Amino acid sequence: MDTSASTIKLDQFLKFVGIAPTGGQAKLLIQGGDVKVNNTVETRRGRKLVSGDKVTLGGQTFEVDLENL
User: Fold this and answer.
1) Which of 41, 65, 43 is nearest to 52 (CA)?
2) Would strands 54-57 and 36-37 be described as parallel, antiparallel, or unpaired?
3) What is the residue extent of each domain of the chain?
4) Which DSSP string do the residues of the chain spell out, in sequence order?
5) What is the DSSP letter of 47?
6) Residue 19 contacts residue 57 (beta carbons within 8 Å)
7) How does pLDDT run across 4-45, given as a tens digit for each residue?
8) Helix runs in the chain, H state only
9) CATH superfamily to which 3-68 belongs
10) pTM passes above 0.85
11) Which helix (H) or strand (E) holds 9?
């Protein structure tokens, strides 16, 4: 497996799924305590996500699937 594709940073993931249009917006959402990773509030925008992680924001949950990014 290509190690560069085995993780994605939380702020990049929020941009990819369309939750945040910019990195700055993603940063504000994350640092504001609005984002949960696997049901735990995450305030580090550089948090590395792996396939199977679940990201929740505003009642919506997105499952990380690095195979299909």
Assistant:
1) 65
2) antiparallel
3) 3-68
4) --GGGS-EEHHHHHHHTTS-SSHHHHHHHHHTT--EETTEE---TTPEE-TT-EEEETTEEEE--GGG-
5) P
6) yes
7) 569 999 999 999 999 999 999 999 999 999 999 999 999 999
8) 10-16, 23-31
9) RNA-binding S4 domain (3.10.290.10)
10) yes
11) strand 8-9
